[in-house]
Amino acid sequence: MRFFLTLNEGGDVSFSPFREMDKLNSGVSYLNTPLPLSVIQALQDQMQRRTFFDLCSRGNKCDRSKTKVLRVLREQNWYSRDLIWEESIVSSSLRVPEGVEMTDPHYQAFDRLVRGRQLSLGDLRALSFELKLEEGTIIRFAHVNVERKKAEWVPAVKPQGRGWQCQRCGERDVEEWPSYFGRAATCPSCKALGSSTSLEVLYRDHRTLLEDHKEVSFHPHWPLTEAQRLAGEQVLEFMSDVSQNKALLWAACGSGKTEVCFPAAVWALNQRKSVLFAAPRQDVIHDVAPRLKRDFPGLSIQVLMGSAPIRFQSGGMVLATTHQVLKFWRAFDVIFLDEMDAFPYQGSRALEWGVTQALRPDGKLLYLTATPSAQGLKEVQQGDMRLIQLPARHHRFPLPVPTIERYPHAFDLKENPTLNKGCFEALRQEGPILVFVPKISWIQPWINHFSRYFPGWHIDGSYSSDPGRLSKLEKLRQNKFDLFVSTTILERGITLERIQVVVLAADHSIFDERALVQMAGRVGRTRENPVGSVVFMSQLESPSMKTAIRWIEAQNRLALERGLID
After folding, report:
1. Which CATH superfamily, name and number, covers 403-561?
2. What span, in angstroms and rounded, lies between the C-alpha atoms of 124 and 143?
3. Which letter does DSSP use for residue 225 in this model?
4. Does position 520 have pLDDT exceeding 90, yes or no?
5. Where are the domains of the chain?
6. Binning pLDDT at 50, 70 and 90, where does residue 212 land?
7. How far apart are the C-alpha atoms of 34 and 6, rounded to whole Å?
8. CB atoms within 10 A of CB 394
9. CATH class of 226-390
10. Would you state the pLDDT for residue 51?
11. Percentage of the chain exceeding pLDDT 70
12. Whose CB among 174, 365, 408, 513 lies 3.0–4.6 Å from 185's, allowing a Cys bridge?
């Protein structure tokens, strides 16, 4: 997207995606060729450093300014012989229609959907498609908001010192390349959301998501347990404490940590604060969405994922994957970030930067997890982050402690391993079996292997890029499989009735203690079925296996000491 560099009679430089915005702009000069915004902003910086306007006499200020602008462009190799000044003509066929009325229903729809957003040109095109408007109309609406100081245009990738920084994800490790306008750069980190280059722009809206105040209707599906109530009170205390803006809710798997945050969300919304529930994986979003809609009837909730059919929604509460959070800019007063130690968020500078930038300057960030990262625990120890613990599940039963079943062989099917058939038959008596494996390449061979072992069973499996994944997961939730083989995509954020868990090759390097705790945490999550079995099958007893079991036992001890389990 390019902008026309404009110069008024007083010598002030500005820019617009259009040659002129209304009849008041007659008398404005503009360069006949539009330029990237990054070039225009660099030009403005150059002129400010030269105290350029102070050099111009009052009588011929505009003419001197035109000369100086072209000189700077030439010095920076942005100049072309075809680049000339033209005067705006009110009757020009390229003139944008006069103004935008605040009461225009099309503008109002646009204005409501872009609040707090950070949108690329591709996003704006998608919005024009959803609103059934021409792309030029959407660009006009966006620029009107910029003119009204509601928003700004920023280069998608911006020069920073001798390097660059993507303004959408914060990445500095970009790909540089020569362009017609000199050096340019592309960000590879957030390309899944569309192109981000120094020659393109982002529309960045400065407003909070809440337009007006409405009392929130909150009807929880069930009352909080004693453990949840205590944790919920601590979350509310954190919200009102001005001395800290980060906290960690360390909760046992299946303890209902999401519901613990609902009272704090009600408080925030009633204080006219916008709220985000975020998680790295779509499976978690699918699981949380119906619970939010159930307990907050009548509240407009945006549910945003890469696979969502509707990209633009309105509402003061948002439920989104961490990738979608990159499309917001300082929009949220409160962020609840679930599974902060999970892939793809864990270790991603881009996603971490996106969550930070989506938070308003005085906002609150609460991390929720059963398996905190080493960095998170370090911040707690240093006093930089408050710790809130929820060691017990809502049904007052202890967490199932995994047992270890050792085998003399590896679990690669090339070695034709034998399994304890009786173990699987006993588990199936208790409920369906979820088998975790460390590699995608193991899924189908193990489905075939189990099918030979148990010919009468209904057996299937899935992985992250499986095209039939969603339909299979729905059948899994409906208890239609005897045994289901999966990678770690199902280690978090999913509740399955009566499920029993087996981890094949639990000593594999890909299974760290956090993954093992999460996989074990699929068992015994509901009131109706609060118990179950977890079996780690392995050649060796790895340090991660030992640590995982130690963590689970420690949670049970803490819950027992506090009188939170029977």
Report:
1. P-loop containing nucleotide triphosphate hydrolases (3.40.50.300)
2. 12
3. P
4. yes
5. 4-87, 105-205, 226-390, 403-561
6. confident
7. 10
8. 24
9. alpha beta
10. 52
11. 93
12. 174
Q: Which of 484, 554, 476 is nearest to 513 (CA)?
A: 554
**109 residue type, one letter:** A
Counting residues of the chain whose pLDDT is more than 90, the rounded percentage is 67
Structure tokens at 295: 């307990």
pLDDT band at 97; cut points 50, 70, 90: very low
Which of 66, 99, 96, 65 shows the shortest CA–CA distance to 84?
66
CA distance 538 to 402: 12
Separation between Cα atoms, residue 205 and residue 501, nearest integer Å? 46
CB 301 within 8 A of CB 275: no
For 428, phi and psi rounded to 5 degrees? -65, -25
Angle between helices 121-131 and 105-113 in degrees, nearest 10:
130
Is residue 146 within 8 Å of residue 202, measured between CB atoms?
A: no
Query: In sequence order, what are the residues at sequence separation of 6 or more whose Cβ sits closer than 8 angstroms to the Cβ of residue 533?
Result: 400, 403, 427, 430, 500, 501, 523
Mean pLDDT of 88-113: 69
- Between CA 67 and CA 286 the distance in angstroms is 59
Rounded Cα–Cα distance for residues 277 and 292 (Å):
10
| SS3 state at 61 | helix
Residue 175 parent element (H or E) = strand 175-179
Judged by DSSP in three states, 439 sits in coil
Yes or no: say if 353 and 297 are a contact pair by the CB < 8 Å rule: no
**Of 347, 394, 395, 389, which is closest to residue 367 (Cα–Cα)?**
389
Structure tokens at 233: 């009170």
Would you say residue 93 has pLDDT above 70? no
This prediction's pTM: 0.84
- Can 226-390 and 403-561 be said to share one CATH topology? yes
- Asked whether the beta carbons of 524 and 530 are under 8 A apart, the reply is yes
| SS3 of residue 334 by DSSP | strand
The CA distance from 9 to 65, in Å, is 10
